[in-house]
Design brief:
Rossmann fold; 17 helices; six-stranded mixed β-sheet; 44% helix; 15 strands; 3 domains
């Protein structure tokens, strides 16, 4: 089913790069539709949002108040969950919150105490964002884990107000999503979705205030809208299909590896699951496990399409080469299913999340291990990081210059400014120099 590759073939890297390639561009129809929706919401505000909500979600409302959920409704959703689901949400939330508490960065400064610069203070002021919008998919998809992973870091960072939007086609609300919003401390919830919800958050309407940043996953229309409003507001990322790369040796369990490949493949047909292994016998065992276990999967068709279209079983020379290839791929999720995984960790430079050892299933990271599951995809782990508290904070530089310090810094700044032809810059520094 899955293509077989070997690093020993001359065209391996070219073949691998072709397999990894993913075009983030949306089609012209989506771009035109999104551009029109953004314009309408920007110009007409609530009225446009109400029209689009009826048109796309089949949910008629005469006012935005009818599309707003109260804190009581969220609390009821949480309180009426089955006990096992409520306890699972609470346990996951506690672990996610605890992990992200360790990411908090505090303001700092230092004052120079010697020489001409004595009394000059430099530093950095850390400030949380005032207001953040959280997009949560609705309808057939229900992702309470995404609510926790996006909302809890924002709350830990100290964001002043967190506004969640979630579509509820034909009025169908997902209790787990609403319960997660309650547990995470979301401040306001509107049952709207699509590009119109992104527009409302980005530009503000008569009811929905403009936010500073929009986070959370969505469909192609949501992604296109986020791309277009970036600059007016911040966004987390434009995520591509989900990915897992498993590095395994003969000590691994082939059934476990096969199921971990399935776990990514079941997201959608464009998801990517790749195995790197130096042992050809073990690769055959994984292939046999795939054939054995695939018929038991409810989402068999999606998994099969994903594995055939973008999956691969790759034989490498050794585990060192596997790490080199892993760094080239820069996967969203990287599993080290080997006998001595910690020997490989230091060799990994590019990965969204690294799962160490046989028991660290990627699915644990998706829900409850603690680290964020919003991760860079499509090789962007080469230059970006998981979502975290730092994404909801901003930094301001602190510069306090003493009179003595101005005598030292002024001539330096003036010389450089004159060199750039910026006379006013130079004069501003020179005026503070005592002759």
């Amino acid at each position: 089913m899955m293509r077989r590759l070997s690093t020993r073939t001359p065209d391996f890297l070219a073949t691998l790069d072709a397999l990894l390639a993913f075009d983030h561009a949306t089609d012209d129809g989506i771009e035109r539709a999104v551009a029109d929706i953004l314009t309408q919401v920007r110009q007409r505000g609530d009225a446009a949002v109400l029209d689009y909500t009826q048109r796309f979600d089949g949910l008629a409302a005469s006012t935005m108040a009818e599309l707003s959920l109260s804190s009581t409704e969220l609390a009821v959703a949480f309180d009426t969950l089955p006990t096992d689901q409520r306890q699972a949400l609470e346990a996951a939330a506690a672990r996610i919150r605890s992990y992200h508490e360790r990411q908090k960065v505090e303001s700092w400064s230092y004052t120079e105490t010697e020489g001409a610069m004595r009394g000059t203070r430099l530093g950095q002021k850390i400030t949380p964002l005032d207001r953040v919008g959280l997009y949560v998919p609705g309808g057939k998809a229900a992702y309470p884990s995404s609510v926790l992973m996006n909302a809890l870091p924002a709350k830990v960072a100290g964001v002043g107000e967190l506004i969640m939007v979630v579509p509820t086609p034909r009025g169908e609300k997902n209790a787990l999503v609403l319960a997660a919003a309650h547990l995470a401390g979301v401040d306001r919830v509107f049952t709207i979705g699509g590009a119109q919800a992104v527009a409302a958050l980005a530009y503000g309407t008569q009811t929905i205030p403009q936010v500073d940043k929009i986070v959370g996953p969505g469909n192609a229309y949501v992604a296109a809208a986020k791309r277009r409003v970036f600059g007016t507001v911040g966004i987390d990322m434009i995520a591509g299909p989900s990915e897992v790369l498993v590095i395994a040796d003969a000590s691994a369990n082939p059934d476990w590896v096969a199921m971990d490949l399935f776990a990514q493949a079941e997201h959608d047909e464009l998801a990517q699951s790749i195995l790197l292994c130096p042992d050809p016998v073990f690769i055959e065992r994984v292939a046999a496990s795939i054939e054995k276990l695939l018929p038991t999967m409810p989402r068999r068709a999606v998994i099969e399409a994903s594995l055939k279209g973008r999956g691969a079983l790759i034989q490498v020379v050794d585990l060192t080469e596997a790490c080199t290839i892993a760094n080239h791929i820069a996967p969203e999720h990287l599993e080290l299913a080997v006998a001595e995984p910690n020997l490989l960790v230091e060799k990994i430079r590019h990965a969204g999340a690294i799962f160490i050892g046989q028991y660290a299933s990627e699915s644990l990271g998706d829900y409850c291990a603690g680290p964020n599951h919003v991760l860079p995809t499509s090789r962007s782990a080469r230059f970006s990081s998981p979502l975290g508290v730092y994404d909801f904070q901003k930094r301001s530089s602190l510069i306090e210059v003493s009179a003595a310090g101005a005598q030292t810094l002024g001539p330096i700044a003036a010389t450089l400014a004159h060199g750039e032809g910026l006379t006013a810059h130079a004069r501003a520094a020179e005026l503070r120099i005592k002759l």
